[in-house]
Amino acid sequence: MTRAHIPGILAMAIVVVASNILVQFLLGQWLTWGAFTYPIAFLVTDVMNRVYGPGPARKVVIAGFVVGVVCSFIGTQIMGEFGPLVTFRIALASGAAFLTAQLLDVAIFDSLRGGRWWRAPLASTLVGSSVDTAIFFTVAFSGALTFLEPSNDVSWAGEALPLLGVGPTVPLWVSLGFADWLVKLSLALLALVPFRVIVSWAQSRQIAA
To answer: Rounded to an integer, what distance in angstroms lies between the CA atom of residue 140 and that of residue 129?
Structure first.
């Protein structure tokens, strides 16, 4: 790691900490405020990958994972209305989803880096975000995985309701995951603008140096 990588590590740490805090606050019936900050992690990873390569990008991912583990541990020590703010299943789901999705993002981006400038960040973020959502919500709330933490009652997440209130009947956690996924996809498109701006600025600084 060099000094040039420190801004990326700090940015990832800020995103992870902010998302862990904001996920505690609901936004409507299906989302939390954390749904809008967490996808920025993919932007940070992609910028690092484009400017410095996959190696430094993976180091930023590992740094974010470590920060996430610390946040999860702190959350297990804070008691909310229904118990600890972070349960074992939530911590496991969060860590597995983040590490898998971000490393997948790095690999896909690197394989597409030679194409049009927008292809690598868009494809890697879309795939990574989809995998992230699938892993997190399945591990955290699926009734089929109650053996992971038998003492944690997540039966509320299995309540059968129309998808997002209007679609076919599905478990509540599926609607929560679908809403989260839609936000990630929307932000993946919007993030192309700051990606282009930040990368151009960073590369111009490299040339000047």
So the answer is: 16
28-52 b/e with 16+ CB inside 10 Å = b? Answer: eebbbbbbbbbbbbbbbbbbbbbbb
Q: How far is CA 121 from the centre of its chain?
A: 15
16: exposed, middle or buried (Cβ count in 10 Å: 0-12, 13-18, 19+): buried
- Are 43 and 14 a contacting pair, CB within 8 Å? no
Phi and psi at 169, nearest 5°, equal -75, 125
What tens digit of pLDDT does each residue of 124-158 get? 999 999 999 999 999 999 999 999 999 999 999 99
Could you tell me how far CA 61 lies from the centroid of its own chain?
A: 11
> Rounded mean pLDDT of 85-106?
96
CA 110 to chain centre: 19
H helices within the chain, ranges in order? 6-22, 34-37, 40-52, 54-76, 88-112, 119-141, 172-190, 192-208
